[in-house]
Amino acid sequence: MWLYLIIFIIPLFAYMSGGAVNRNKFFxxxxxxxxxxxxxxxxxxxxxxxxxxxxxxxxxxxGITYGQTYxxxxxxMFYEYGYSMLSFLIALITENRYIYIFIITLIIYFCIYRSFxxxxxxxxxxxxxxxxxxxxxxxxxxxxVLAFSVAWLGVTYLIEKKKWKFFAIVxxxxxxxxxxxxxxxxxxxxxxxxxxxxxxxxxxxxxxxxFSGITGALYDAFANVSSxxxxxxxxxxxxxxxxxxxxxxxxxxxxxxNYKNIEPTRRNLIFLNMAWIFCGLLLLFIRxxxxxxxxxxxxxxxxxxxxxxxxxxxxxxxxKNGLGALMVVVMMALYVRVYVSWQNYNNLYPYKTFxxxxxxxxxxxxxxxxxxxxxxxDKFYRPAFRFLx
Length: 389
Fold this sequence. Notes:
The protein has 389 residues and is mainly α. It has helices at residues 2-17, 25-40, 48-65, 81-93, 97-119, 123-133, 142-153, 155-159, 163-176, 196-212, 214-223, 227-230, 242-257, 266-284, 299-311, 316-321, 323-343, 364-369, 374-377. It has one domain (29-359, 367-383). The protein contains 19 helices and no strands. Helix 1 (2-17) packs antiparallel against helix 6, helix 2 runs antiparallel to helix 5 and helix 10 (196-212) runs parallel beside helix 14.
C-alpha cells in the first residue's frame, strides 16, 4: 500500500507547496512519464483483462509469424477495426505481450499528458484528481482507456471551432472502442451556462431513466457485443451503483456551489458541458454493470472544472483552508477505495515488473487466467523485437 501512497503523495506535496496556478511542465512530464513506466512495466496487473488482451495479441503475432495476411488472422475480429490495426502494427514489431502492453500504455499516457499540458492551470491538482478517478483503470482496460485518452485530444479542436478535425477524432475513437461514438454529443451541447434548475431537472430525468434499468439493459445487450467483451467474467449484473449516485451528487454540489466563479468562455463552457454529460451518463447507467465506463470519455471535464474553480483568485483562500483540502480528501478516498477493492484479488500488490522472470504469489488472476506458463520461466521467450529473433 505504501508504494501507491507515495504515488499519491508526490503531486500532493507539489500542490501544497505551489500556488493556485502551477503549470510546471517539467513536473508534469516527469510525473506522467514515471506513471507510464510504472503501469506499462507492471507484470499483468489489474486482473482478467490484461490476460485476454495478451492472449489475443499472441494469436495475432502468431498469425504474422506464420505468414498469414491481415484478413486471415481471426484474432483481429475480436476488436474494432482501429484497435485491430494498431494491434497488427505492434505485432509487426514484437511477438511479446509485455512489449505490446507497454507500447499501448505509453500511447495512453502521452495523450493524457498532452491534454493536461494544454488545458490545466494546476498540474499537481489535476494529477490528484486523475489518480482518484482514472489511474487504476489504465492498468487493465487498455482499449477503452486508449479510446478516451485519444478523445481528450479532440477537445482542442472543438475549442478552436475546427469541426471536421473534431469529428475525425470522434471517428478514430469509435474505431478504437465503439462506445467512443458518445463523444460526438459534446458538439451538440448548448454553448452557454445552463441555469442550475435546468441542470438539476435534466439530471433527475437521467436518474429516473437509469433507475428504470432500461439504459443498463440496452448497454449490456448491445454495447459490449464483441467477443472479447462477452468473455469478461467480471461482469457483475445490474444492481444499483450507489457509488455513481454519490459521485454525481458531490460533483453537482461542488460545481453549483462555485457556479458564479465559472466565466462563460468557450473553453470553460465546453469543459462544463463535459462535466454535465459525465454526471448524466453515470445516472443513465446507474444499474448497468459496465455502462458507467462510457462516462470516462468526459472525465476530463470534471478534472478541468474542479482545477479551474480551485485556481481562480476568488476561491484561492478556500483552496488552502477548505475546498482544496476537501478535494484531496475525496480523491484520496476514491483512490484507496479502488486499491482495496482490487487488492482483494491481489491485482496491484506486491509490485513486480516483467523485467524479471517468475510470477507474483498469491495472484488470483495469474492462478485462473494465465494461458501460457512459458512466460513464467522466461518473459521474453517470445522476442521483444522481431529483428532480434
